[in-house]
Amino acid sequence: MNDFDLSFRIDPAVGLGPLLIAFTVLVAVRAARSRPGWTGRHAATRLMAAGYAAAVASITIFPIVAGYGMYANRTPWYDMINPIPLLVIDLSFAPNVIMFMPLGFLLPLLSGRARSAGRVTLLCALASASIETTQCLSYILFNNGRSVDVNDLIANTLGGLLGYLVLRGAWRVSFVADTLGTLALPGSALDRERSPAISIPVPA
Fold first, then answer.
1. Which of these, 7, 132, 138, lies nearest to 77 by C-alpha position?
2. pLDDT digits (tens, 9 = 90+) for 140-164
3. Cβ neighbours for 91, distance < 8 A, ≥ 6 positions apart
4. Are 103 and 124 spatial neighbours (Cβ–Cβ below 8 Å)?
5. Which whole number is the average pLDDT over 60-88?
6. Phi/psi class of residue 140: alpha, beta or left (left: φ > 0; alpha: ψ in -120 to 50)?
7. Omega cis (within 30) before 63
8. Residue 150's CB: how many other CB atoms inside 10 A?
9. What is the reported pLDDT for 69?
10. What is the DSSP letter of 84?
């Protein structure tokens, strides 16, 4: 074996575990200091979002398998990209839709920017594009990895929109809306809907 024949693997527990632990500690410290937006159900929302993000990363990016020299994948990286939408749809389309539904549901609880179906759809599309870009870079850098498929981007974006529509439907049910309102972070889209600004009329 020469110096360039190298293969290694980074599992999700190794790549994501320390980040999750560090974030959990951060949440615990800020909750102990009673930081606004970091206590009680707000802390639970942040931990839930972090757990979801880690789960998606573990499915789409990890494990990272690197191969160099005799272990490298010889297929050119550009042959691993499918840029043609909906020509060939495999069995992963439905799971990719389902995987992003929680993101469309969570975004209005987390961010003030996710205040409409269009914005949530755009944010989900950007998140999916980031994953596909990371997968492509992983293949280029490590000579091994996953293929990049525009259909995954479509499926993820559709899933995010469906998740948002489920949230809007749940928001119309009073007792569910009360629970969601307590989970929404300060300044998030749902928090603003729950506590709209009160305008004070100016005397003529």
1. 138
2. 988 877 889 999 999 999 999 999 9
3. none
4. yes
5. 84
6. alpha
7. yes
8. 16
9. 83
10. S
Quickly list H helices, the chain: 12-32, 40-60, 93-110, 117-142, 150-171, 174-183, 189-194
Helix (H, G, I), strand (E, B) or coil at 188: coil
**pTM for the full predicted model:** 0.88
Task: Indicate the burial class of 73 (C-beta count within 10 angstroms; 0-12, 13-18, 19 or more).
Answer: middle
Q: How far apart are CA 20 and CA 186, in angstroms?
A: 22
In which band, very low, low, confident or very high, does the pLDDT at 76 lie, cut at 50, 70 and 90? confident
| Residue range 8-35, pLDDT digits in tens | 899 999 999 999 999 999 999 999 999 9
CA 75 to each of CA 71, 78, 81, 133, 164: distance values in angstroms, whole numbers, following the listed order = 12, 8, 11, 18, 38
Q: Which residue has the tokens 């990016």?
A: 61
Phi, psi of 61 (to 5 degrees): -115, -40
Query: What phi, psi does 83 have (nearest 5°)?
Result: -90, 0
